[in-house]
Protein 1
Amino acid sequence: MKSLFVVALAATALSSAAPAMAQQYESRGGAVQPGHGFREQLESLEGRVQEGIRAGQIDPGEAARANRELASIRGEME
């Protein structure tokens, strides 16, 4: 059940970040970095998985599945 929740959370982040990926972000140097907000959301989700492990809310197997899913999403971005 928890793994389903984590995968659903990752899918939600992916779908809600689509508009952010379409926008361009200019850093201080003026370079355009598309998908900037999406990367931040992935990092936030990865942090939440780690917090869940530390708090005992997510077991290592569920965390491994969630991390694989997040890595897959990150890989599709590149």
Protein 2
Amino acid sequence: MQILLSCSVHLSLVLGFYTAAQALSGDAPNLLAFMFTVPPAFAVAALPILPGGVGIFEAAVIEFMKAAIGGDAPFMKVM
């Protein structure tokens, strides 16, 4: 039961990021790119690198997206 709940929470987070990206930019990456970048970014953000994790999650999402879709994509110019 807990695994099902955890998977649904992570899926809703990914869908939230995907929906926000579609709202901000019409040429946002597909849902699969978000499925492979958002959960690892949350794992990186959990590491105690800086106090309070200031900017770690955002930097991880940007770097993972650059690796997934390429740094010269039009979507990356918004970031």
